[in-house]
């Protein structure tokens, strides 16, 4: 079986490499020639555990190839996945120009039946628009070639993308005809998912499933952050409340960790987009509007605690920041709460010394520039700093030498944005510990 995957971002590259790894012939297409050249040389555009290995292995075996020529790639392909970006427009709605340009190009160049499946997160009704774009291009060619559209949203998480793709919880496939369903069934056969974990449905429902999943997860996080803030006021411990409620299987123990707010390229964008979609249908998604508002506030929580401890004027002070990326195991800085915190600390007159195991280059080049001093390691960031802010819970930050840190920091104060430290132990070591909801 041969397929084409258009777009070599997170979703496209991981999907392409993983499909190749289970024996499918895959052409990954991107308009960015430089990116394609780099991929051919084994240089990954993103940091993702295990990705380089799987890309290089499958490229060398010949099952995975890279091209900028979409028209050529889709010849003999049974499926073309659209996995290009859908950046948020100014009003929060997802911009479909790249998705529709790909659909148009497929319509212009296809020469046989093909299933065109969207893997990018796209608003409900995009399936119809993709179909229309392909049909229009075919009409212009006076061609009556048959094709099908499908929606196959991707649920992988950054930082665990390869693993998530190879061992999915479930596969959601929106299709409208049997021939396409059969092709998709064959494509996912190597993943050996039992019947009820491949869920077939109509296209709008598949599109809606993706947004609903992310919106639900974002809701759990904002809900818990809201509760954590109340826990602090009433003298309860949000960690204990979390453990207490998480043991109820109806609630579950995942995605209820309070923190500095959710970030990344998905939750913020998708929550905005679904609110926007609802508005266009004259409906107010009130719960999600609050989810978004709570999240915006939560990004300020840690610096508020810093100001409560040291006063509003932080001029002349320096803070060590551990972690910049929006979560561990990724260099992704999109919507990272660290950006908000850095700006806030600087606005109050403070300097920031930052260390992140992977994301410093990305932070420096695109998001934070020279607003912070980038340090060689976690300890280096603490030299003569007034306090430590833990922003991203990378493994290497979990068990530092507190005695060494006590000597480096001017004040033994830790602002723990992810509740990873044991307050009792820190107290024994002479540290003051601030957490979220505790
Ligand atoms: C998310 C979803 O988890 C994936 O299923 C989905 O495929 C993906 O979006 C997407 O739409 O492409 P991702 O953005 O990679 O994946 O990151 P998550 O692991 O979901 O974390 C999102 C944010 O929530 C992070 O900032 C994280 O720190 C925060 N979070 C997560 C919490 O604050 N508390 C928690 O308990 C869990």
Automatic annotation (TrEMBL):
Pathway: Nucleotide-sugar biosynthesis; UDP-alpha-D-glucuronate biosynthesis; UDP-alpha-D-glucuronate from UDP-alpha-D-glucose: step 1/1
Domain UDP-glucose/GDP-mannose dehydrogenase C-terminal, chain residue ranges per copy: 320-423
Origin superkingdom: Bacteria
Entry's transmembrane regions: none
Gene Ontology biological process terms from the UniProt entry: polysaccharide biosynthetic process; UDP-glucuronate biosynthetic process
Similarity comment: family membership: Belongs to the UDP-glucose/GDP-mannose dehydrogenase family.
Enzyme class, UniProt record, top EC level: oxidoreductase
Binding site for NAD(+): 30, 35, 86, 121, 158, 269, 334
Oxidoreductase keyword on record: yes
Protein name in the entry: UDP-glucose 6-dehydrogenase
SUPFAM superfamilies reported for this sequence: 6-phosphogluconate dehydrogenase C-terminal domain-like, NAD(P)-binding Rossmann-fold domains, UDP-glucose/GDP-mannose dehydrogenase C-terminal domain
Organism phylogeny: Bacteria, Pseudomonadati, Bacteroidota, Cytophagia, Cytophagales
Organism, as annotated: Echinicola strongylocentroti
Claim: Transmembrane helix is one of the keywords in the record: no
Any one GO molecular-function label of the UniProt entry: UDP-glucose 6-dehydrogenase activity
Reaction it catalyzes: UDP-alpha-D-glucose + 2 NAD(+) + H2O = UDP-alpha-D-glucuronate + 2 NADH + 3 H(+)
Record-listed E.C. numbers: 1.1.1.22
Binding site for substrate: 155-158, 210, 255-259, 263, 327
NCBIfam families: NDP-sugDHase
Active site: 266
Key words, A-Z: NAD, Oxidoreductase
């Amino acid at each position: 079986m041969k397929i084409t995957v258009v777009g070599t971002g997170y979703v496209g590259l991981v999907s392409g490499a993983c499909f190749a790894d289970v024996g499918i012939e895959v052409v990954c297409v991107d308009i960015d020639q430089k990116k394609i050249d780099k991929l051919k040389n084994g240089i990954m555009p993103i940091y993702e555990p295990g990705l380089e290995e799987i890309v290089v292995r499958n490229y060398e075996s010949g099952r995975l190839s890279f091209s900028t020529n979409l028209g050529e790639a889709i010849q003999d392909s049974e499926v073309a996945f659209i996995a290009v970006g859908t950046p948020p427009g100014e009003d929060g709605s997802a911009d479909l120009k790249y998705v529709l340009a790909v659909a148009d190009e497929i319509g212009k160049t296809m020469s046989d039946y093909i299933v065109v499946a969207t893997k990018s997160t796209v608003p409900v009704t995009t399936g119809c628009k993709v179909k229309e774009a392909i049909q229009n291009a075919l009409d212009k060619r006076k061609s009556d070639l048959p094709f099908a559209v499908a929606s196959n949203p991707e649920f992988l998480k950054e930082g665990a993308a390869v693993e998530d793709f190879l061992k999915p919880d479930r596969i959601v496939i929106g299709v409208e005809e049997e021939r396409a369903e059969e092709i998709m069934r064959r494509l996912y056969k190597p993943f050996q998912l039992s019947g009820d974990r491949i869920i077939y449905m109509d296209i709008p429902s598949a599109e809606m499933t993706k947004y609903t999943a992310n919106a639900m997860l974002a809701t759990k996080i904002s809900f818990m952050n809201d509760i954590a803030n109340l826990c602090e006021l009433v003298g309860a411990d949000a960690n204990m409340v979390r453990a207490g409620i998480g043991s109820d299987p109806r609630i579950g123990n995942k995605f209820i960790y309070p923190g500095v707010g959710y970030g990344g390229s998905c939750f913020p964008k998708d929550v905005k987009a679904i609110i926007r979609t609802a508005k266009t249908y004259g409906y107010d998604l009130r719960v999600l509007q609050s989810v978004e508002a709570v999240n915006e506030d939560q990004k300020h929580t840690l610096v508020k605690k810093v100001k409560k401890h040291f006063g509003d004027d932080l001029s002349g002070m320096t803070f060590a920041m551990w972690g910049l990326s929006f979560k561990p195991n990724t260099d992704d800085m999109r919507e990272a709460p660290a950006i908000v915190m850095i700006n806030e600390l600087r606005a109050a007159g403070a300097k920031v010394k930052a260390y992140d195991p992977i994301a410093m280059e990305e932070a420096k080049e695109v998001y934070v520039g020279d607003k912070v001093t980038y340090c060689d390691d976690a300890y280096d960031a603490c030299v003569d700093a007034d306090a430590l802010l833990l922003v991203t819970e990378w493994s290497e930050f979990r068990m530092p030498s507190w005695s060494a840190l006590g000597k480096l920091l001017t004040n033994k104060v830790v602002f723990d944005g992810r509740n990873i430290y044991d307050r009792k132990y820190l107290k024994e070591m002479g540290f003051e510990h601030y957490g979220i909801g505790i």
